[in-house]
Amino acid sequence: MTFRDWQQLSPAGAARELHQRVRTRLTADQQRAVLAALGAESGLAEHFSAALGGTPLSGVPYFLKDLFPVAGQPMFAGSTFLPEVRPAATQDSALVQKLSATGAVFAGRTHLQEFAYGITGENPHYGDCAHPRFPGHLTGGSSSGSAAVVAAGIVPLAIGTDTGGSVRLPAAFCGLFGFRLTPRDPFIADAFPLAPSYDTAGWFTATAGDMATAINCLIGSTPAPREPRGCYVELPGLDAEVALACGQAADHFAVRETATSTAVRAALRDSVDTYNTVVADEAWAVHRPWAERFKDRYDPAVWQRLNRVHSTTEKQRESARQSTDAIRRMWSDCFRDFDFVVLPASPFAALTKAGCTPENRLRILALTAPASIGGYPVLTIPVALPSGLSTGLQVVVRSPDSPVIAWVLKQFSGR
Questions:
Q1: CA distances from 350 to 26, 305, 333, 358 (A)
Q2: What is the DSSP string of 174-201?
Q3: Are 216 and 323 in contact (CB under 8 A)?
Q4: What 3-state class would DSSP assign to 43?
Q5: Residue 166 known to be catalytic
């Protein structure tokens, strides 16, 4: 169901439909892995009834990644202990306030990979987040629950965050449209942080039309003075079917330019090390006040990543600073010649549990870290694969209100 379909329902009908979809489209284990909180049917009916009318998001239900404050509700951020060190919020986050002002209806909160420090969708506390349409595969993360509720057709909109690909990868794995904003903007400022230099807010929709509506309502857009020009950059490390599908999809709206592609690949050689170094330092700064006290309650994989900071050398930090400068210069050069740059969003289709290896995490970050380091907004476009699974394209743009976004979504609105 699209935004418009939900808007045709009565308040009681919308609340009933949402609960029925949770019951019938997610198994009990999936519900535990996906949902941190679900509004009661009677309460949701009241919220639908009270929602502001007359806007494109009026009566559209959404779920919220459990990193954003909601007044009076505890935030766990995928952990078991965060409320013990962080009191419940006294007011809603800026993004929730904006959504309320548009008439969107808050349906509940979604689980994530613990503290957003991971990209596969695994969580030992609540369960790994299974792909709603392909049993045995995972949604990707860290915005795993938010991707799952849209992919399962429970709601047409869900809010996530993206530090190193946490909207882009689940969108690609689940066949969704995804959008990430920029670091330090008002919509991410009050969310629980992973690495503030890279953290961004974002969201998922199932259709291009709904994504265009959400962006226009929440961000706004500017008209394109001309048809924008984009470049597709082929990157190494992709499975063969993914490389072919991404190239064919990109050819519909972007060119391939050898000089630009060569320059981009050269600048990105150290992007994964740079990303990991910066995130390790910033994440440890967030967790330092309580990390040792709660170390036995962290996901062991997350604890290992947090502890990476203790083996980071000053030489690595200096290398990361130099690499950051080089990558940002590369992006500036690209945007002198092109209005947008297109990269693959995933090197493979949705992973199985066995495929969630450190090596595959590095393969993902090789594609997603560059835009994170640059600090640019990214629109993710789903790309179908012959297997029925999916990958995606990252459309990197200069600013969240870029006219490129509406233009690209229009190219994909009928697919």
A1: 18, 23, 33, 15
A2: HT-EEEE--TT-HHHHTSPPS-TTT-EE
A3: no
A4: helix
A5: yes
Across the chain, which has 415 residues, the per-10-residue mean pLDDT values are 97 98 98 98 97 93 98 97 95 98 98 98 98 97 98 98 98 98 97 98 98 97 88 96 98 94 92 98 98 97 96 97 97 96 98 98 97 98 97 98 96 79
Walk me through the domains of the chain, giving residue ranges and CATH numbers.
1-263+326-415 (3.90.1300.10)
Catalytic annotation, pick one of 79, 93, 142, 372: 142
Task: For the chain, report the end-to-end CA distance as a whole number of angstroms.
Answer: 16
Structure tokens at 108: 């509940």
pTM (2 d.p.): 0.97
Q: Is 142 a catalytic residue?
A: yes
**Tokens 């590369």 correspond to what residue?**
330
Nearest to 187 by CA among 98, 108, 84, 283: 98
**Cis preceding-peptide flag for 166 (omega within 30 of 0):** no
Helix axes 403-411, 208-218, angle to 10 degrees: 160
Among residues 146, 166, 372, 390, the one annotated as catalytic is: 166
